[in-house]
Amino acid sequence: MEKINFSAKEWQCAEKVLNEFSYHTDCLRNGQLTVEPKYIVCMDDDASSAFYAAKVYFACKKQYKHEPLVLCVGGKGMLSKYLNYDGCSEGEKLAHVCRRLGVKRVMVLDKGNNTGANVKEIIENTEKGAPIIFCPTKRLSLRLERTVKFSTTQFPGTEPLNAWFYVAPETLEDMLQAHNGKGLAGGLALLSELASIYERLRRYKNIFNAPLEKKPSQEGVEAAAYLEKHYPIKIKRLPLSAPIQFVKMYWAVMTGKKAVQEDLEKHVEEWQTRVEEGL
User: Fold this and answer.
1) Is the whole model's pTM more than 0.90, yes or no?
2) Burial class (CB in 10 A: 0-12, 13-18, 19+), 31
3) Residue 20: is it exposed, middle or buried by C-beta count within 10 angstroms (0-12/13-18/19+)?
4) ∠ CA 13-15-20 to the nearest 5 degrees?
5) What is residue 240's predicted lDDT score, i.e. its pLDDT?
6) What is the Cα–Cα distance from 108 to 122, expressed in whole angstroms?
7) What average pLDDT score do residues 47-76 get?
8) Nearest to 68 by CA among 96, 41, 37, 43
9) Is the dihedral of CA 7, 11, 16, 18 positive or negative?
10) For residues 268 and 96, is the Cβ–Cβ distance under 8 A?
11) What is the rounded distance in angstroms from the CA atom of residue 159 to the CA atom of residue 174?
12) What is the structure's pLDDT at 61?
């Protein structure tokens, strides 16, 4: 991976956005779960989510003598699909990692093509009212929580999910890995995803997600605006919104597939030694 200058303005803005627009863990007190989940959810293209879900799975098994069903959720992204095992879906990759980490009860849900559709698939495959602990990456956490909160409005006639969240305390360095593709091309993928967080929350409020419950700080808004201007790929949804950046990202993905798989294997082996260490 390319060396990253975290003192540069874009990374300072990225850290502000990450800290401002993320959700928090609400199912943990003094290292113990405060709810016994029937389901645990890992989601998206980052295998770290599977690691977090496995940690919650083993914590539940130890504390409640119960093994929840782990739902591995995610379809195929425009570029992330090239980083999965033999082009499998994100859900299948997450399931593979969960099984490698010793999770015995796994279900793949990979028919959704966006966060709302993924949440709908979860609703359709879970028992009404049953406690669910979501284990997203920090960058996905608030957008997912807002989508879950809005689910009964977006999908009339459905019951609200009894949702809880375990959000690991990730840093930018934690996220910028080869195994998830975020560290490729100088971190362009991560910058573009962080650029889209606030924009999506703002644009899609009362359409796909519930509005923010508190007004964001001016500093956070300005940091988001800077990233939105300079890293718009995930916002415009078209390569032509930033053609040079897209080509750089695409080239890094296509030439880095082997390195990505090797790095994922190293991480899975390391996670195997830590998965039961507690929350």
Assistant:
1) yes
2) exposed
3) middle
4) 95
5) 58
6) 10
7) 96
8) 37
9) negative
10) no
11) 35
12) 97
